[in-house]
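> run fold Phosphoglycerate mutase
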Amino acid sequence: MACYKIVLVRHGESEWNKANKFTGWYDADLSELGVQEAKKAGQLLKENQLKFDVAYTSVLKRAIKTLYLVQEELDLHWIPVHRHWRLNERMYGGLQGLNKAETAAAHGEDQVKRGEKVLISAHGNSLRALVKYLDNVSETEIAELNIPTGIPLVYELDADLQPIKHYYLADQAEVNAAMAKVANQGKAK
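> ok
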């Protein structure tokens, strides 16, 4: 039985993530922590001996730089990289640039909320859409999914490209802490 792998990596923490702002299509750079998270993601992929034939990313520099730093750790700068705006973060419109916690306090938390080895470096919401599709997750469940920054999510697919299993390349305590950090960004303080 054939087994394909797709690895999803949410970009490392951006300067606007650090400031708890809705980033959307604003081209925020990685924070110092985000650079370290991206390098660690590459190290985790290397430790797990994962190799790639092709990579995809958005056109926003936080995802592009995350992918570059992962490639640096893997010594895989030679693989083709495809950039597309459809992997960009969702557009937040008038919320872009606003503080998430202040906005949640003012408006309520409910309002805030193939044949190759493939690496995708993108954003929380664009990766959430891929997870929704791959795992056939309901609208309600997907809204509660918090993909952590800088921790690779590996999907193993069968010959029909159906998921066999998926897992993060980190221990569960680290994944839970990173997910909680993302979930807490939109909470009223």
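The chain has one domain: 4-184.
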